[in-house]
Design brief:
0% strand; single chain; mainly alpha
């Protein structure tokens, strides 16, 4: 009996644009969903902006972050490196902000931190599938 070495992980596609791993697809879809929800929240805050000028500023920031998350999710699904980097940065910032907010809303903060950590893990562990 000849001994064969155990099979390793499957090699990445030669062009980088082949099949997309399931966790990368999930991370891209989560970025799109979170971005869409952020845009809806920004529109809601914008509707309250008649109360105070600070709400207008907050609404603009929320809308911009939501648009960036939406863009990052679409780019991740297209296996583009810029989407991966933007997704990692936004998920990292989101995790830190939710960690700060955990005392005020523990349930939603823990879930959001879990989503952000999953996105960071999925995008860092599968970097070989992305192209410039």
């Amino acid at each position: 009996m000849a001994q064969y070495p155990p099979p390793g992980p499957p090699p990445p596609p030669a062009s980088g644009g082949g099949t997309r791993p399931g966790v990368v697809t999930a991370a891209g879809v989560l970025l799109i969903v979170v971005g869409a929800l952020s845009i809806l929240g920004g529109i809601l805050v914008l509707s309250l902006s008649g109360i105070s000028g600070i709400f207008t500023l907050i609404a603009i920031v929320i809308l911009a972050v939501g648009a960036l998350e939406l863009y990052a999710g679409i780019q991740v699904l297209a296996l583009k490196e810029r989407g991966r980097i933007i997704g990692i940065v936004l998920a990292s910032i989101g995790a830190v902000l939710n960690l700060i907010q955990i005392a005020k809303a523990p349930g939603t903060s823990v879930i959001s931190i879990g989503i952000d950590v999953f996105i960071i893990w999925a995008l860092t562990q599968n970097a070989q599938y992305f192209t410039a």
